[in-house]
Amino acid sequence: MILLVTKYKFLATPDTKSMWIFAIVVAVFVILLFIGNFISAKKTSKTPAQRKRYSRYIFKQMARSMGLQKSHIEILEHLVKATKVKQPMLVFSSAGLLDDVLKKGLYSLQRRKNTNEETKEKNISQLFQIKQIIERNSKNKIGIKSSHLVKPGQSVVMLPEHGGQYPGKVLSNLRDMLACTIAKDGSGGELRWKRGTKLKVIFWREHDAGYSFLTKVLGYDAIKGQPAVFIQHSKTLRREQQRKFRRKPLERPCFFFPIKIIELGEGRRAKKRAVVQNNQRILGTIIDISAGGCSIRTLTPLNRGSLVKIEFDIDRKLPITAFGKVRRVRKEEIRGGIMHVMFTRVSGKNLNEIYSYVYNYTPPANLAKNLIY
Length: 373
Known about the structure:
CATH architecture of the largest domain: Beta Barrel
Number of helices: 6
CATH topology of the largest domain: Thrombin, subunit H
Oligomer: single chain
CATH class of the largest domain: Mainly Beta
Number of domains: 3
Radius of gyration: 31 Å
Helix content: 25-40%
């Protein structure tokens, strides 16, 4: 019998290196599967008390990563428990839920009668600090990149190329343009810039950050019977650095007084003293405010670096006194200007009034009587 011999190999002989690689892959897969089953079994084997301690640990870790101090964490943890929040971790990402929890704590503190005013105001201040810190450090703010997403009612500041700064509001967001209120001069008259005038628009988006974009005037018309300036849309919004304190428009009259530093005594015993010039009362308008300072429009602004005492009120309620320092002055087109003032001293009660206004933490009419503190 003749045997047919062929030089072709139809089945390749596996080499040693490939077999070792295959074996290692299988081994790694088995180890990972074992580890996963072990962790899963460990989690399911935890008692309710252990799971609760684990959840508290994660909650505190998240709170610390947000920048909250120990006292803040204790307060927030108490409020979350007292208000029976089912998913406590959401207070770090949901502004609405955080507001709901903090408002209930605030209203409860305001109704307490067995606590002295100083302690009460201090506790209220800590609630606002929690809101401020979480809002500033939240990593879930995506932001916007186009003026097409600016909502009607948004407060803006328009800066024309020839100078000046004019507050306004978005009346309507149209397909090809934004319709905004027409700028006013110092006497309240309308300012109508020429078509094509270049503008820089700045605005603060609620629960987000500040934005600016460059645009130009397209023309004028009326929206729902209200005169409006039409400005071109922009797809290149610049997200400015977020302020430490949220700012809110106010538009309330105020009086401010220069503060003079005088030196008493001579030599090493000389002492400096701040004296309010009560005989130099100046009228102005607070156009926006935050817990850190305010902007005042006035015909007679003080120089940069000046110390000042400010008297005003919010919604015609509690009179507020604040001391501050003029950080910068922006000149208006005709006369006067806008002073940007940093607060240097405000009482706890007055500061909490400002916080309440800025965050809109006002007690509802049907406030429940049961306290959570």
